[in-house]
Design a protein that fits this description.
The chain is α/β, with parallel strands linked by helices and 323 residues long. It folds into two domains: 187 residues, 3-Layer(aba) Sandwich (Rossmann fold), CATH 3.40.50.1980; 122 residues, Rossmann fold (3-Layer(aba) Sandwich), CATH 3.40.50.1980. The protein is 34% helix and 14% strand. The protein has eleven helices and eleven strands. A hairpin with a 4-residue loop joins strand 7 and strand 8. Helix 5 runs antiparallel to helix 6 and helix 6 packs parallel to helix 11.
């Protein structure tokens, strides 16, 4: 895979789901406290809602279903995680090759990869709801809608926005009660972290999304919001919004006190402290260079609560509970 292709794929996964939509999820299946979807099955109230159901998605479009969705195709890992987390596993009929959490999602019929899912395969599954991401998948919506499908786009820019998407998807799938539980767990995790860091200084923090070339989380991203919630001051927005390249010269000048690199299928940061010019960084000198599983902060789904807690422990270990 070329560098350009890798960058494009990772950024897409994050913006969805996207580093690159998943998106995704299940607090119930992670260590974040929810147990609403351990089997990925719909709860007893799965069919309690009656249509029509109308919500507005992150693209600003209105999505209306005559009744709760019974056959759902997800085009982003984060969307898949959300659906399983709220107990909708039995309604999932298709996903992408990136869908790997929870384990049950791996066996879903595949409609292609995140960047270029097959419209023909999606149509063949006859879904009454398609879950998509923003960014690279924006052009898919019109194609699918022309074929009579309803498309719900998950493309949040804040932690609270992720919770709002979970609530709306719960409405569309007739799973309001389990969705409310997942959101409640995420809300409590957020409140706990904020209470721990409320009176502490906000150290300059750098988030490495990709290493070659150096990419970061800029403004108007849920990752930037996570840094703020965790008690840090993200230096990424000075390079722009979204997921911009970041100059190594500017990095040395800004001298972050905390350096957090994502690691996963799309990025392997290697020995960060040994990179040319990095030895003088305050984060390196003080031993505050960390590697974090990108699924926990790059997929806008329920596991962001777990990612927030880990990020806060990296930025403010003095305020974190003893293991």
């Amino acid at each position: 895979m070329s560098t350009t292709r890798s960058r494009r794929g990772l950024a897409a996964i994050i913006l969805l789901s996207v580093l690159i939509a998943a998106v995704l999820g299940a607090l119930a299946l992670s260590g974040c406290g929810s147990s609403s979807a351990s089997a990925g099955e719909a709860s007893p109230d799965a069919f309690a809602s009656s249509g029509p159901i109308t919500v507005t998605d992150d693209s600003g479009a209105t999505v209306t279903l005559a009744q709760p969705a019974q056959k759902v195709v997800s085009l982003a890992p984060a969307d898949t995680e959300i659906a399983y987390a709220i107990g909708g596993g039995s309604k999932m009929v298709g996903g992408t090759s990136y869908d790997d959490y929870p384990a049950e999602a791996k066996s879903l019929p595949k409609v292609g990869d995140f960047a270029s899912p097959s419209v023909e395969k999606i149509v063949a599954l006859q879904p009454d709801l398609v879950l998509a991401a923003g960014g690279i998948q924006a052009g898919l919506r019109s194609k699918l809608e022309k074929l009579g499908m309803q498309v719900f786009v998950v493309d949040p820019t804040t932690y609270d926005g992720v919770m709002a998407d979970i609530t709306r998807l719960g409405q569309l799938m007739g799973l309001e009660a389990p969705a409310t539980k997942v959101v409640g767990d995420m809300t409590r995790a957020k409140a706990t972290v904020q209470a721990r860091v409320a009176t502490l200084d906000r150290p300059a923090t750098f988030i490495e999304v990709y290493s070659k070339p150096l990419m970061t989380a800029g403004g108007k991203t849920f990752i930037d919001d996570l840094v703020t919630l965790a008690g840090g001051s993200n230096i990424g927005p000075q390079a722009g919004d979204g997921f911009p390249n970041f100059s190594s010269e500017v990095l040395v000048k800004d001298n972050p006190a905390v350096y957090v690199a994502m690691a996963g299928a799309q990025s392997s940061p290697g020995a960060i402290a040994e990179r040319p010019g990095y030895s003088g960084l305050a984060a390196v000198k003080d031993g505050k260079v960390f590697v974090l599983d990108d699924d926990l902060i790059a997929r806008p789904g329920p596991r962001l609560a777990q990612g927030l807690e880990q990020l806060a422990a990296m930025i403010h270990p003095e305020a974190s509970p003893a293991p």
